[in-house]
Each structure stands twice: as C-alpha cells, then as structure tokens.
Structure prediction request, 330 residues.
Amino acid sequence: MSIKQRLRQLPALTLLGAAMTFGGSALAADYNAKLSLDVPEGNTKYVAAKQFADLVREKTHEDVDIKLFPNSVLGGENESAEGIRLGSVQMGIITSSVLTSWVPEVQVLDLPYLINSDEQAVAINQPLTDELAPKFAEQNFHLLGFSVNGIRQLMSSFPIHSVEDIQGKKMRVIQSPLHVAMWRAAGANPTPIPAPEIYNSMQTGVIDFFDNTATNYLTNRFYEVAPYYVKTGHVYAMGTWVVSQSWWQRLPEEYQQAITEAAHEVQEKLPAMRQKDDQAALAKTEEDGATVIEIDDKGPWKKAMQPVKAEYIEKIPDGKALVSLIENAD
Prediction:
C-alpha cells in the first residue's frame, strides 16, 4: 500500500478509534433525561426523585442519566405534562388531577375518602398502573406508576372542628370541577385559584381556607397566613410517574426494565418517607405557632361529599370498575 493510500485511510481509522473509545459516552448521551418537579429541593417528592435517578444510574451502569429540574423551572405541571407528551421533557412526577384532561380515568384518584391509608395506596399501584397504562400510552405517556405526594388537609385562618364550621366560608380549591363540586356540597364557597396565589389570597382575605399537604404547609410558609392545620384527610394526593413515550421507545429493553424496577422500589419506600417528613413539618410549624386540629369523626365530612362522589363515579370512564379495583386492593 502506498503512503498516499495510507494517508487517505487515516481519517476513517481515527473516527473508528474514537467511536470505539467514546461510543459508550455517545450512546449514553441519547439516554439523558430531564425530570420535571413542581417542588423545591428537600421536599419529599424531590428526595424520592433523586433516589430514583441514582438507582437508574446504578442499574444502567451510568448509561441513563436523569437530571432533576425542581421548582417548576421547566414550567408548571400542565406545561411539564405537555412537554412530556411532546418529548421536550422526558419525565415527571405529575399530580394526578393535572392529567385528567388527557386521561379522564385518572380522576378517580381525586374522589374524596376513596383512598384511606398509605397501605392501600401502595397496594393499588401495580393493578391501577396495569389498568391505566394503555390509556396513558394513547396520549404519548408511558406510565411508571403512582405514589402518594401527600394527604390533602385543611389550612385555615379560623379553627375548624366540624363540617358546620366551613359553611359559607371562602375556600381555594385546585382547578378541578370535582373539587369545586365536593366542597360546595360540604357547604363551602369554593373558588379555583392557582397554587402560587394561595399565600397572597389568604393574606388579603380573598379566601378563608384551602387544602394542601403537610410539607407544603411548611415549605410555602402557609402557617403564617393559615395558622390552623385541620386533619380531614379527605384526599390522598397521588403523584403520577410518567415518561415520554417517544423517549421510552428508544431505550433498550434492559434499560426500560431497570427504570421500571427503580421506580417501583422508590414508590414502595415513599409512604415511610412521607410520614416522617409530614411529622417533622408539622412539628416545625407548631413551634412557629400553628395549631394542629385532629378530626376524629370523619363521618359527617364523608356524608356531605357522598352525593358528589357517587355522581363522579358515574361520570368518570370505567369509574365503577376503577373504584372497585381501588377498594378491593390488598
């Protein structure tokens, strides 16, 4: 072979060597993922997402690298969900109620007093995931499962001991017809208000009370404007672990399996994490002057909301079957 011929081969040989040397890194770059979160670092959901990302890196030998984006830096939950559908965002742990416009069946998780314990929430994860995964796939979501973000409790400017205490009071609710209906049935005057406006709305008297979770009560300093934390436990706020279907389909099967396993491992540990964080959050808010009120008899609350619950079981696609699945999970 002439010197000229050898020189012609050098670029090709150099590229081949580079591909062999750096091929793993180049391939891994295709599997990088952005995971969107609506909570700050330190929140239970963030900690769970961090554990998930670390597990995925370990199980895939660092070939799948998940970067967390907390504090809604990729947009609010609606924007993040749309980004996941379109593939500009790869993953998110999205509040289930946000996803009802795409998968109306998931609204079943917002029914009052349907899920009543962490054990029940864990038990429904796999059967509910199996049942709803095809519905999510139709909307370009791959469903990894569900976990409890927290338990929705009341936070108020005035003490609440019974359902009679909220009659005619102005309440902020999430932007959901179901939540509006159930609180109107309970006697309140509900108004949907975006989450970032809660603090100011309480401070200015636009609303008298609202519902949220214990960790948010602390991290958003809601106790400053709503010094009464009332444990009605009316809804277990579920996080929905979703992945962009287009990104998911590009993954090798062994990486899909690794991600699924990592998600399930963290989802099973989350209740204990959340309970610990909830207790710590409430203890801190009590130190700062908040009052925690226990509601021992939830019967009147359930009774007030039962007509709306029954109405929505009929409205939600496959509502009766999904409620039966949740009630009978063990």
Q: What stands out?
A: The chain has a mean pLDDT of 91. Residues 253-287 form the longest helix (35 residues). The beta strands are 33-36, 66-69, 91-95, 141-156, 170-173, 189-192, 209-212, 228-244, 291-294. The radius of gyration is 23 Å.
